[in-house]
Amino acid sequence: MLQALKNRYGGVFVPGKELPAGRDEFRDAMAAALAAWSREGLKLAWLEIPARRGELLPDALDLGFKLHHGRDETLMLVRRLVDGAYIPDACTHSIGAGGLVLSEDRQILVVLEKRDRIDRPEHLKLPGGMLERGEHLADGAIREVFEETGIRTEFRGLVGMRHHHRGQFGASNIYAVCRLSPLNFDIHLDGDELEKALWMPVDEYLAREATSPFNRRVVQAALATAPLPDETLEAYMDAPDSYEVFMADATAGMSTHEQER
């Protein structure tokens, strides 16, 4: 029997390192395992195939597996063992973070991307980009601002989010805008991505016709309200650095007596 790991959702996972060396061995062992898992009442079988073991893919497809997703060195396949069993979709979203960097004297940091320098030379936007795998929103916004402009910042909170369904490869996209405070002011431009970066009076930025509706609205929100702070919850998940939670102040609007109860 193939070595496999069961999960709490009624599924079973076969790691790529546990696969037999030959195609015939693989086909026979997998067929026997699928029959046993079906008798056991399991719902899904997940199969990891290393990219360098691609010769096993036709046999896996013949056994009823379907491609689910791929990474740098592996392909993940899945097969229903029970009709109608729910198969979670592969990653449906990409996630990005932008930095709304606002100084105490109401100067906002904005950038012009190289791709806009000809067709949209007035399209100044907030610095930002895509998160790296395992990266928090706050860390991603701080990193992107520094990489693009050389401005170091401190995280203040989450201002707003945008969600759309026009991302690459059919994925949707979530973009979070974080309020950041600058720790320095001398710009060092990333010449690969940006045409220019500059400090601008925030009122001037809001008044510009070329400012996008989303950027205008998120800046207005940042000026009008306090951002949602990052909060650590007691006895939540394994470690505080493994998650982010953004919540409004739970004591806002409460009387002193209510806060002390």
From TrEMBL:
User: Does the keyword field hold Hydrolase?
Assistant: yes
Q: Which CDD domains match?
A: NUDIX_ASFGF2_Nudt6
GO molecular function ontology, one term from the record: ADP-ribose diphosphatase activity
Cofactors needed by this protein, per the record, are: Mg(2+)
Q: Which SUPFAM superfamilies match?
A: Nudix
Species = Wenzhouxiangella sediminis
Domain Nudix hydrolase, by residue range, is 92-224
Protein's recorded name: NUDIX domain-containing protein
Keyword annotations from UniProtKB, A to Z: Hydrolase
| Pfam families per the UniProt record, alphabetical | NUDIX (PF00293), Nudix_hydro (PF18290)
